[in-house]
Specification:
With about 210 residues, this protein is an alpha+beta fold. It has helices at about 1-25, 55-75, 115-130, 160-180; strands at about 85-95, 100-110, 135-140, 145-150, 185-190, 195, 205-210. β3 and β4 form a beta hairpin. It starts with a helix and ends with a strand.
């Protein structure tokens, strides 16, 4: 009986040792989320459109206002286009239907210098509107005379009858002498030489027309 009791006591001691040893091997505890791996959950707000880092809404508004003002300053202001000022220039032309001289008022720029060349060109252009094409070689001056040299293959030297030839020469001469105070004589030539046509014959320095 005593021997049996010793065996039981030994078994209890072994179980106690086993239990004590097992407690060191196994750990029971509760899960603590704070001890786990921490995650970075910071949220970065996207900046407002047009706003840089560190700028406030007020800063953005001030910048936009400055840009608007700059844009307005750089916009060119349309200037008012003034019409070209003209003056009346009374001239003489030839009526293509009758062959007679008639007056006409042409318009030239107010800033244009009234020269023999301008007057001759204006008369020629006005007669071109009447389908009369006059060929000019050159326009020059000598003393109180204006020298007009024609081309030999166009009116008034060719292509027209005697009445039209004289009318063209008279129209040009009167337009010159009545608009130019410094010149009262007109000399005609053909390509720098004497004006000799089938109807009119002039020396190289002969005065065709002299005004008052």
């Amino acid at each position: 009986m005593e021997r049996f009791n010793k065996k039981i006591l030994l078994i209890i001691m072994l179980l106690g040792i086993f239990l004590l040893t097992g407690c060191n091997k196994f750990h029971f505890g509760t899960f603590n989320a704070s001890e786990g791996e921490k995650t970075n959950s910071e949220v970065t707000l996207a900046p407002d459109e047009g706003k840089l880092d560190g700028q406030t809404s007020e800063d953005t508004k001030i910048k936009a206002d400055k840009e608007d003002v700059s844009t307005q300053d750089n916009t060119p202001t349309p200037s008012t286009i003034q019409p070209v000022a003209n003056i009346d220039l009374p001239i003489y032309i030839v009526n293509v239907d009758t062959g007679e001289i008639e007056t006409k008022t042409a318009l030239v720029s107010k800033d244009s210098e009234l020269t023999p060349e301008l007057i001759v060109d204006t008369v020629i252009e006005s007669m071109a509107d009447q389908s009369i094409v006059v060929g000019i070689d050159s326009v020059s001056t000598k003393g109180d005379s204006v020298i007009v040299s024609f081309t030999k293959d166009q009116a008034p030297f060719s292509d027209l009858g005697a009445s039209y030839e004289s009318a063209i020469l008279d129209a040009i001469a009167q337009s010159l002498t009545e608009n130019l105070a410094d010149y009262n004589k007109v000399i005609y030539r053909v390509e720098g030489k004497a004006y000799i046509s089938g109807h009119i014959e002039l020396g190289v320095d002969d005065v065709y027309f002299e005004g008052n």
